[in-house]
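Fold these two proteins, one after the other.
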Amino acid sequence: MIPLLHDLTDETVLVFGGGPVGARKARRFAAEADVVVVSPEFADREFGAAELVREAPDTDGIRAWVERTDPALVVAATDDADLNATAEAAAREVGALVNRADDHGEQDMGNVVVPATVRDDPVVMAVATGGHSPALSKYLRESFEAQFADAGSMAELTSDLREELQSTDMSPTERRDAVRTVVRSERVWKALDSGRPKSKRVAADVIGHQMGDTS
């Protein structure tokens, strides 16, 4: 299984199942996509900005919903394995991605795994255990959140530095090494909390020391 990032902006995600799992999936995808959740009842959970449709679709009903919404992704999160299998088949028939919430361990070919995610725009980090250990996924996600709390700010800072260094007489190798030095500098990471101006000054100082060491 190869991890990929997929932009679901302006796409539809169709979720079958209104239990806790369906609610969690709906919240996740509603941050970016248009989400429709179809279920005969809904758990007392937050579904984000998803549209909730109270209906208990049978096999034909599931296929009708897939055809009607033209989803980019179908999430099968009911407590009925046969209904989940129908949703999976219907998704594949129209070329949509599919995520089966009841498919643990060995994943079927083409099944999308939704990883535990840490987001600090523009940085996204994700970890998955193939369904074997959700507890480990959660632990690693929390560890990443603590260790890389300012990853988004570091990405923006180094993006600015790369552009600025383009106009200097530094060689491509020197520019690459300078940015790598900034990313690895504890001083710069600590300065990120103080705002962009200070972190840029510290980064410039770190690069200056690095250039002095190599000259």
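Now the second one:
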Amino acid sequence: MDKAALRSTLRARRRAFVADAGPERLAKMHGDLLLRLVPHLMGTRVLSAYLATPGEIDPLGILLHAHGMGIRTALPRVVARDRPMTFHYWLPGDELVSGPYGLIQPREDSDACVPDLILAPLLGFDRALGRIGQGGGFYDRAFAANPAARRIGLAWSVQEVGSLTLEHWDVPLHGIATEREWIDR
């Protein structure tokens, strides 16, 4: 299956899973994922996560928990497809703005930072810690530009595939957290 078809299949699978779960079960699954992820936050100085688009795992609770632990928090900022994604400090209550691709992100004048842990959304993953995203390459380029950062993907278990064919620019994750389990090597 080509990547466009795989992305379409994975989006539909994720959409159906979220719709079938309902709000109460989704809240419980987010809580389970947070508990699974907390031990992996230890030692983190700057955590970057994202603000979820419909269907994605929402890491806002993780960001708030990390902030409460004294970890500095950050969000990604995207300007254009041909420009690198950057990370900017974020505190609860900071003003956010609309960005490309329907993203909500920090303002242009917010302070940039270098995270040492990046929580990334994804459309699909495999047990070898490969990921397939939306197709813009923003996270792969950010991972390559921040090689010392730990890379953790957040996904619903239904987003797992048997194996992904990775390109030379694809950067594998260090771990994946789902509502059911923690996956690493």
